[in-house]
Write a structure and sequence with these properties.
The complex is a heterodimer of chains A (421) and B (321). Chain A has helices at residues 2-21, 35-50, 63-75, 91-94, 107-110, 115-120, 143-148, 157-173, 190-202, 220-232, 246-254, 266-271, 314-324, 327-337, 350-355, 359-368, 380-395, 401-415; strands at residues 24-28, 53-56, 83-87, 122-123, 126-127, 130-136, 138-142, 180-183, 258-263, 282-285, 300-307. By secondary structure, chain A is of the alpha/beta class. Chain A folds into 2 domains: 2-128 and 301-367, D-Maltodextrin-Binding Protein, domain 2 (3-Layer(aba) Sandwich), CATH 3.40.190.10; 138-299 and 372-415, Periplasmic binding protein-like II (D-Maltodextrin-Binding Protein, domain 2), CATH 3.40.190. In chain A, the strands form 3 sheets. In chain A, strands 2-1-3-11-6 form a 5-stranded mixed β-sheet. Chain A has a 4-stranded mixed β-sheet with strand order 8-9-7-10, sandwiched between helices. In chain A, strands 4-5 form a two-stranded antiparallel sheet. With 321 residues, chain B is mostly helical. Chain B has helices at residues 24-65, 84-91, 93-125, 131-138, 140-143, 146-157, 163-170, 184-213, 216-224, 229-257, 261-266, 276-286, 290-314. In chain B, helix 1 crosses helix 13 and helix 2 (84-91) crosses helix 13. The longest helix of chain B has 42 residues, at 24-65. The chains are: A alpha/beta (421), B mainly alpha (321). At the A-B interface, helix 3 and helix 17 of A face helix 12 of B. Chain B: Belongs to the binding-protein-dependent transport system permease family. Chain B: InterPro entries: MetI-like (IPR000515), MetI-like_sf (IPR035906). Chain B: It is found in: Cell membrane.
Chain lengths: 421, 321
């Protein structure tokens, strides 16, 4: 008996150092579509491998509200959160609260990622986050409906409106009165900023604030773009889009009630999932141009992973980041959820291209994508809010784009004094 | 029984004066009173401490922040700027839009709630079978947390799957689905509707309680004098209900002026559909401007306090007795 006890004690002594090192890491990842599920799976795989435990923090679906939640936790110096998912527009806003990840990621690992994003995540020489996935706005359409009514995929917004109208009118006659033409993210939140920036850029109207910091939004092309979209609301575009976030638009499209949808790449995997009513009937392409001399564009989006500077165990947290942003996990997320990798070599992966045929062409979309004006630093959210409020007013019939954009122009000019944000 | 040498009405400090002034019996009573007062304070102390910690401290901090340029991106760098943050709020036309929205919301919803609450309370005050169950059922909307009921209504208002559109369309009242929470004009109505649905039971409850205190003989006298039910309501019930009604209304107005959740869940977006509290939140957390946001919050507090004071003076509302 004594021997057994001694044996147990010895065994316990062997195991204990292991146990003492097991830490609990709290991560906040996304909650749109199947993000939370995928993140949980990835984090659990890491936990199994490393012997640590992981907890997922719940976050709102709206990115702006997520930021508000994180800011409150971080400003209070909370240790409740270790790894945070950071939007591509946040680095200038949150840099103070994150550790420098350079010591954890050697140069050659960083080189595998899209370099503009790595640069975007570097604030004052500090690498505050590692790229996790990249996004750009895309156009989804109902292949079956277009074929049925002898229509071609549109190359311009004007064609899109025409095609949508033709199909909706024909379907209405046949008794399908639920069908609408085009849905996008029209609620007054960050998503509308992305959508409207795409319209403006596709018409050749620039990027709200140019890279040198000058306010450029009040120009005839931008006015034309927004007035054109406003003219669609109420006929091709249902008024309900004014309350849609990503999932609202996807709900309308995936239930088979819309011909066209603007959304991020994640919608691909869900639209083609087993129980989707439109499985196999969907095609995806770059967003249309704003007229014959416009350009095909998409708002550059994407999410990064950073480690809070208040984390009680930054080394362990950085290890989780390394795993989640690594090639193996990025590939899994791309296969299961159509989340675009930030590691360039994955775009040549046969298996990935088979699951997501549009990935190859996305590579070009990413290089043409329009970034949001992050030159505005910590004032970005104000700039974005002023811009989208003006767009929202125009879409909901309160004034013309010319007047509304003029007001934005004045406000932004007083916010960023002479381009010094 | 005052001694000619001592003043009839002893001034300050008179209580500790000559032993013959206060009779011994009274002294015993005041000792007891003092004892009771002390016990009361002792029992209240924990509550007061908790109040100061959870309400007083944040309030004081908010006031303090409103005199600084505190920013969430770097709280350590905040500086005292006097009234600058407050000036920024007052100069912002968006703030005044939210003030107007909030007061319009408070006005419309409280009027509707009072009228509906009165009608329902009068109905429930009548004697009929199953009255108990009905009274309990009426309270259900009030028992549901606002965030939950607002989300529930957001689904019902949805332009594609919403039951509101389905019902209205099948009744032939509208020809195509409406986006209830999206268009600023409709969204305001939708928010008021949800608030009325949720808070009418509260009004009903308070009015019903007041109705049951009314003496029956007054109505008998009114009936003998030949007053019909409508006349009895306006000349007997309403005047007697005035006090409790004014108190109930002020409760509701205070609640409505600091509204946040119904708007946030149902519309959650543009300035057109934002209450004052939403504006403060936006400045504080979306724009990281803790200083300016606190100034807006303090201003909100001041506006509500001022409004309450005016209401209580003009309406001669007494909360004390």
């Amino acid at each position: 008996m004594k021997k057994v006890l001694a044996g147990l004690v010895a065994a316990a002594a062997l195991i204990t150092p292991e146990l003492a090192q097991a830490e609990k890491v709290v991560i906040a990842c996304g909650s749109v579509g199947q993000e939370k599920e995928l993140c949980t799976q990835g984090a659990q795989a890491w936990a199994k491998k490393s012997g640590h435990t992981v907890e997922i923090m719940s976050v709102p679906t709206d990115a702006g509200q997520q930021l508000a939640q994180f800011q409150q936790l971080l400003a209070a110096g909370s240790t409740d959160l270790d790894v945070v998912r950071i939007d591509v527009i946040w680095p200038g806003i949150v840099a103070n609260y994150f550790i420098d990840l350079k010591p954890y990621f050697p140069e050659d690992v960083l080189k595998q990622h899209f370099q503009p994003i790595v640069k975007n995540n570097t604030v004052n020489g500090k690498l505050i986050a590692i790229p996790w996935f990249i996004e750009a706005g895309l156009l989804y359409y109902r292949k079956d409906l277009l074929e049925k009514h002898g229509q071609k995929p549109p190359t311009t917004w004007q064609e899109l409106a025409q095609t949508a109208k033709t199909i909706v009118d024909a379907e209405k006659k046949a008794g399908n009165d639920k069908l609408v033409g085009f849905v996008f993210q029209g609620k007054s939140y960050e998503g509308l900023t992305c959508n409207a920036l795409e319209w403006v850029d596709s018409f050749g109207g620039g990027t709200i604030v140019d890279p040198s910091g000058q306010v450029t939004i009040n120009n005839p092309k931008a006015v034309e773009a927004i007035d054109f979209m406003a003219s669609l609301v109420g006929n091709v575009v249902p008024k309900g889009v004014l309350s849609y976030e990503e999932e609202g638009a996807r709900g309308a499209f995936q239930s088979g009630n819309a011909v066209f949808m603007r959304n991020w790449p994640y919608a691909w995997a869900l639209a083609n999932s087993k129980d989707s009513p439109i499985k196999g009937k969907v095609e995806v392409m770059a967003l249309p141009k704003g007229g014959a001399d416009g350009k095909a564009t998409g708002a550059l989006g994407g999410w990064q992973l950073g480690v809070s500077k208040f984390s009680a165990h930054p080394d362990v947290a950085a290890d989780l980041v390394k795993y989640l942003a690594g090639p193996e996990e990025q590939k899994r997320r791309a296969l299961v959820g159509a989340f675009n990798p930030t590691i360039m070599s994955l775009y040549k992966d046969e298996e990935l291209l088979k699951a997501n045929p549009f990935f190859g062409s996305l590579y070009d979309t990413f290089t043409n994508a329009v970034p949001r004006p992050t030159i505005t630093g910590s004032k970005y959210n104000q700039v974005s809010t002023e811009f989208r409020n003006a767009v929202y007013s125009t879409l909901s019939g309160k004034g013309k784009a010319a007047d509304n954009l003029k007001k934005v122009d004045a406000k932004l000019k007083s916010l960023g004094k002479n381009g010094k944000w | 029984m005052a001694h000619p040498a001592t003043p009839i009405n002893p001034g300050p400090g008179g209580a500790s004066a000559p032993p013959e002034a206060p009779p011994p019996v009274l002294e015993g009573a005041s000792a007891l009173l003092r004892e009771r007062t002390r016990a009361a304070w002792l029992f209240l102390a924990p509550t007061l401490v908790v109040m100061v910690v959870v309400a007083g401290w944040p309030l004081a901090r908010t006031f303090w922040f409103s005199f600084t340029d505190a920013n969430l991106t770097d709280m350590a760098a905040s500086q005292f700027v006097g009234l600058e943050s407050l000036r920024q709020v007052i100069d912002d036309p968006d703030w005044w839009t939210t003030v107007w929205t909030t007061f319009r919301f408070a006005g419309v919803s409280v009027v509707l709630e009072t009228v509906l609450g009165m009608i329902i309370a009068l109905a429930l005050n009548a004697k009929f079978g199953g009255r108990g169950i009905l009274r309990a059922a009426v309270l259900v909307p009030w028992a549901i947390p606002t965030v939950v009921s607002a989300k529930m209504w957001a689904w019902m208002f949805n332009d594609i799957y919403g039951v509101v559109n389905a019902v209205l369309q099948s009744l032939g009242l509208i020809s195509e689905p409406m986006a209830w929470t999206a268009e600023p004009g409709l969204a305001f109505g939708a928010v008021v509707a949800v608030d009325v649905w949720k808070t009418t039971p509260f009004m009903t409850l308070l009015i019903l309680a007041a109705l049951q205190m009314l003496p029956g003989d007054v109505y008998e006298a009114a009936r003998i004098d030949g007053a019909g039910p409508i006349r009895a309501f306006f000349q007997v019930t309403l005047p007697m209900l005035k006090g409790p009604l004014m108190v109930a209304i002020i409760f509701r107005i205070l609640d409505a002026l600091r509204v946040f959740d119904v708007f946030f869940v149902l519309t959650g977006g543009g300035t057109e559909t934002m209450p004052m509290a939403g504006y403060a939140r936006q400045r504080m957390f979306e724009y990281q401007e803790i200083g300016v946001g606190s100034a807006a919050a303090s201003l909100l507090f001041a506006i509500i306090a001022l409004f309450t004071a005016v209401y209580m003076v003009v309406g001669r509302v007494k909360l004390g007795d």
